Amino acid sequence: MISREQIDEALIIRHTAEVQEKLKNARVAIAGLGGLGSNIAVMLTRIGVGHLHLLDFDRVDITNLNRQQYFMKHVGMFKTQAIKDVLQNINPYLETECENIHVNEENVGNLFKDDDIICEAFDLPENKAMLARKVRELYPEKPFICASGMSGYGDSNSIVTKKIGNNWYMCGDGGSNSNGGLMSPRVMICAAHEANLITKLIVDGKV
Prior knowledge:
Blueprint (H helix, E strand, L loop, with lengths): L3 H12 L1 H9 L1 E5 L5 H10 L4 E6 L22 H10 L6 E6 L7 H4 L5 E4 L4 H14 L5 E5 L11 E6 L2 E5 L11 H21 L3
Parallel strand pairs: 1-2, 1-4, 2-3, 4-5, 5-7
Antiparallel strand pairs: 6-7
């Protein structure tokens, strides 16, 4: 078993003690653990973000395996349980708070009160809009990152990161490309945009 000290040392070697201290102290919420959220969670775990607050109510389905960070053994499990298993295999010493819950207008205020950064990773447009509206209403001081347009295959460079308001960011192509249905590459590119932006906000404090 690799020790906490060994993992900490390896992370410091990769991106300095100063950067790792900021990452270790950060608290990031990811709402939705599908194609976007599961990939974002894996990326943030690999760089050593100290506390991930992970929310979803769904179970892993065999059709999720084509673009989400789950394996055959996870089929039928709640995504919160499955992602915790995945992340602990990367770094078991980081804090992962998993809530098997349906995020709605009534509970947004309580769910995200302790998080520094809130990342939207829902599938349905109406859920995306609801979370954006409530976070902007209740927590305008907290960075909020959302995504749109990343299904199928197509132009990788059409997926971009934009600041669309005070503490409000959008990753994606802004459309609804569906060439090839639901595939892994574009959603992983978009997830990487979200994870990269979260990293920049943690380390630099601004974009």
